[in-house]
Description:
Structural class: mainly beta
CATH superfamily of the largest domain: Quinohemoprotein amine dehydrogenase alpha subunit, domain 2
Number of helices: 8
Amino acid sequence: xxxxxxxxxxxxxxxxxxxxxxxxxxxxxxxxxxxxxxxxxxxxxxxxxxxxxxxxxxxxxxxxxxxxxxxxxxxxxxxxxxxxxxxxxxxxxxxxxxxxxxxxxxxxxxxxxxxxxxxxxxxxxxxxxxxxxxxxxxxxxxxxxxxxxxxxxxxxxxxxxxxxxxxxxxxxxxxxxxxxxxxxxxxxxxxxxxxxxxxxxxxxxxxxxxxxxxxxxxxxxxxxxxxxxxxxxxxxxxxxxxxxxxxxxxxxxxxxxxxxxxxxxxxxxxxxxxxxxxxxxxxxxxxxxxxxxxxxxxxxxxxxxxxxxxxxxxxxxxxxxxxxxxxxxxxxxxxxxxxxxxxxxxxxxxxxxxxxxxxxxxxxxxxxxxxxxxxxxxxxxxxxxxxxxxxxxxxxxxxxxxxxxxxxxxxxxxxxxxxxxxxxxxxxxxxxxxxxxxxxxxxxxxxxxxxxxxxxxxxxxxxxxxxxxxxxxxxxxxxxxxxxxxxxxxxxxxxxxxxxxxxxxxxxxxxxxxxxxxxxxxxxxxxxxxxxxxxxxxxxxxxxxxxxxxxxxxxxxxxxxxxxxxxxxxxxxxxxxxxxxxxxxxxxxxxxxxxxxxxxxxxxxxxxxxxxxxxxxxxxxxxxxxxxxxxxxxxxxxxxxxxxxxxxxxxxxxxxxxxxxxxxxxxxxxxxxxxxxxxxxxxxxxxxxxxxxxxxx
Length: 697
């Protein structure tokens, strides 16, 4: 719809006296708009201040009349009608109603601004320019716009439409759009409408207009864009059973879903005759007989949503095995074994009615064990670092003809006593050496490696074990890069592992002589101090102290390194008996006092030994004071401000005696500070807390 303004249609009006007086004589053109209306206007002001003109928007055309006052105030009104339609060569419905538009302008230095209001409650702003000074419309050809916009698209698709445009005067054209979709962008210099919708819906009444700034105007007919949801094909997955014995029920249902919630229909190709198939669920089921023995190949299950090509599972086969009498297996595996002290051994009983050769298999076999597929024997000699519970062990037998049988799943608990402290000197009754509790230390050396025969750990013992120093942050990288005696899987030890080497029966150095390269200064561990995270845990072999301090164990300090390889040593597993006020470690099989006195009672070292000997708690009277390694076994170095497992309810944030005497000075004994897990030694006359221990039944 091109707007061609021909002012001669309306005359110039007014009397001659005004025509010589009005200072605003001339031809004016401009635009008006709001969020749903876009239009253009033009009019002439004659010498008498009388106005005639025309306006056109995306709905109506109007014949304009009005006046310009000497002070620059301009009032213009217009009614939609046949005359206006004819002037701009547009065709409207005959019933235009009584739509009237009015403009109020102010003219200032050739520009004209103001507001407009239409009788159907539309209103907005308007502006324009003085185009000619003679009060007659300059020759102007209205722009023309055409094109057929795309009216449908699916979500995720790219929408793009640019209207065709033409202007005989080669004027600069300005495009506008009404009711633009939220997902679209509009270019007012080209009229391009583009975007990618993400959700379905309909945008209606979209109107693209163009004006040339000289009163020329055109628009495309209003159009709509319908966004349809893009179809997502269904998905199907699942692993069909590929072997079954005659007489057994077969059933497989694939999992399928459709993002658009479309109804799904299943299909199958290559279905064995003994199977039934559901097109509603995809279930494939049936019970074969011995007559169905054999393999059916290239079975394909597919699904469709009715809007896309079917999608399928990978082709599969189903083998029907001849029905035979299965073997049987029986036996009661041992549920526990003591690390180092015992060998685990279990041999199941198995038989087959058809005298087939039997083959055994195992699931979840402990890594310290070995298994015979010929006899089903499960054997092994766990080390201390193998302590823990190994669950879900299942031993099965097969006759090679589809017949199988399995034992019920069982668990094996590997317990591990603490390693002895190394103290053999007999100081007083009831002390460390009096009871001599724990596993004997045992080491062997090959090349530059010392193997701990109790934990199974292998330790670096070359010249660098006494010469290389790193800070806490770089020490792990050194171990990871270490290549020693054909091994490359070295790591920095945790604090439990490194302190297990301490021999409290020795001093300077408190380390077995099998180690030929040892420094008296501390060695780094992976331990991060829970009380002060700028400190790390280290072990000092000068006299056996494992400690951290501001000067000695700041993480930036340089310390020695001794790398290790093998299964990592873990913590105990603690359970509290509230009735007996005890805590039992299922790994070390130690039972600990945990009544109110364990958190409050204090004695000198000698009196503490006597207290534990006389203690009766939980129906037990065989209590004793723990040695230093037993006491260390309940320290939780990952906790601060009490460094002990939360199963313990009575713990003071202070020092607890051990029964181990300081080898360098028998006037002192070892203790642990359960505030942070640090150990020290001090004179035996000092008063510290006590927590007694006994061997669990």
